[in-house]
Amino acid sequence: MQKKLLHGQWRMVESDIAEDILAGRIAPQTQLPKETELMEKFGVGRHTVRRAISQLETRGLVRVEQGRGTFVQSRIDYRLSERTRFSQNLLDQGRETLGQPIHEEVIEAPTKIAEALRLPIGEPVYHIVRREFVDDKPISHSHSYFPVRRFPGFNDARRSGRSITSILADYGVPDYIRLRTDIVARLPTAEEARHLMQDPSLPVVALKKVDVDLKGMPVAYSESVWPGERVQFSIDNTSQLLDALARRSES
């Protein structure tokens, strides 16, 4: 961390430390210097340091352990594959997840959603808005769409907290795969920043995805945003590799 005179401005202390964390100059799980050391380093008071650390914790960049100190938090590694499942993806990493319903309604599918789900324009779809938490911090804000005709009552089942996988199985869809995922980095809207509890000047990662059953028919379309500082995405091609090796061994 580069030493500089900050004139008691906590945002500059926060920015300096965050820059080093995001650039990898401070490794995950590393303990930050003690308050007194940070005060001396930046030439600021205790209140300034505490406010900066509090904001870094809110951003999910550090965690404060009572009696031990402040540690750099590891980014969430969200793996994208043909069978991406939100809860299992994160539970496998020892993360605690929680879903929060925000809004639901039945709407007439506009062109974009109708095309993604291969439905006539205006066909009724469930529109479900949710926020997902990991380790008590918001990690995604999503808008998901499901065909009403094919999945009557889907919204009631989802509201009860059941997973999409288990609900679809009740409708005769025992398995589904990811057909397409589009990823782009951008700034959040005011609503997205509020739900993710982050500064609107910080970037988010926006995903658009289509899931299909094993006959290739779409079962869901969703758009979600994720805090760019708290999550990284990795592409898992293990299943494709295994399929290729199996075909090669058969030839």
TrEMBL record:
Work out whether the entry's keyword set contains DNA-binding: yes
One Pfam family matching this protein = GntR
* InterPro entries in alphabetical order: Bact_HTH_transcr_reg (IPR050679), Chorismate_lyase_/UTRA_dom_sf (IPR028978), CP_lyase_PhnF (IPR012702), Tscrpt_reg_HTH_GntR (IPR000524), UTRA (IPR011663), WH-like_DNA-bd_sf (IPR036388), WH_DNA-bd_sf (IPR036390)
Keywords, A to Z, come to:
DNA-binding, Plasmid, Transcription, Transcription regulation
Give the CDD domains listed for this entry: WHTH_GntR
Mention one GO molecular function: DNA binding
The record ties this protein, via Gene3D superfamilies, to: Chorismate lyase-like, Winged helix-like DNA-binding domain superfamily/Winged helix DNA-binding domain
GO biological process terms held by the UniProt record: negative regulation of DNA-templated transcription
Q: Which residues form the HTH gntR-type domain?
A: 7-75
Q: Which SMART domains match?
A: HTH_GNTR, UTRA
Annotated protein name in UniProt: Phosphonate metabolism transcriptional regulator PhnF
Q: Which organism is it from?
A: Rhizobium jaguaris
Read off the lineage from the record. Bacteria, Pseudomonadati, Pseudomonadota, Alphaproteobacteria, Hyphomicrobiales
